[in-house]
Amino acid sequence: MIDPHGELAGFWQERHLCTLTTIRRDGTPHVVPVGATLDAEAGIIRVITSGDSAKARRVRAAGQSGMPAAICQVDGRRWSTIEGVVVVRDDADSVRDAEKRYEQRYRTPRVNPKRVVLEITISRTLGTVR
After folding, report:
1. Among 35, 75, 86, 101, fewest CB within 10 Å belongs to which?
2. Is residue 1 part of a domain?
3. Range of the domain at 43
4. How far from 45 is each of 2, 25, 49, 87, CA to CA, in Å?
5. Where does the record place the Pyridoxamine 5'-phosphate oxidase N-terminal domain (predicted)?
């Protein structure tokens, strides 16, 4: 879906903060700032967070089928929103992999024994990255 060598993938490798949007039980959006990493070949966006964060609890409550989510980043006139279904991954291998990806894009994440990964399987991309 996303060319790993294309402009969109390049934009998602630059260091930018993002926003993650999930939906509360009452149907209203919950938008929070996050760091995110794109795995274009797998069609996945990953966000590391504490397992007791509101976003992680909300996604976990949605069950194994996940819930709709959108992640967005902006740099001046360039922007990208990626939509998909988000699930929680809490196994050690998934967390380690996501931490390594985060470190490559941002910096070494602080130690957090409660860390989980919010994994968004990409279904749609929007934006202008030129």
Report:
1. 75
2. no
3. 7-127
4. 11, 23, 13, 11
5. 7-125
